[in-house]
Write a structure and sequence with these properties.
Blueprint: H1 10-18, H2 43-53, H3 56-65, H4 68-77, H5 83-92
Helix pairs in contact: 1-3
Length: about 110
């Protein structure tokens, strides 16, 4: 990974991923029981929520759990990303703003 994650304990986060338990910050999903969230079935929901409201550790876990292609597909089709998140995603994932569906709401 890159230097964005030098300030967090990635070793502990990697171990957390290996436990097969829901790895993300619980407060992000306050409106849904954690036991009801399937990381494969609900990946769009998870990716959008982590990108909009997550901490750096949540972003790290997201990048480890899902491929860049999966994440980019979700952000290109998302209608719920806010303007700051759209700009971050455009920069971080190297996706032109005009390819992000949600960016049309801010033009």
């Amino acid at each position: 990974m890159n230097t964005y994650f030098n300030s967090i304990d990635t070793g502990t986060l990697d171990q957390q991923l290996n436990t097969k338990q829901f790895p993300f910050s619980k407060f992000l999903f306050w409106d849904t029981p954690i036991k009801m969230i399937d990381v494969k079935l609900h990946k769009n929901y998870i990716i959008e929520r982590v990108l909009v409201k997550g901490f750096l550790k949540d972003l790290y876990l997201l990048l480890k759990m899902y491929s860049n292609d999966e994440i980019v597909t979700v952000i290109k089709n998302s209608k719920v990303l806010d303007k700051k998140t759209i700009n971050f995603c455009s920069y971080y994932f190297n996706v032109p703003l005009n390819e992000l569906h949600a960016s049309s709401y801010y033009n």
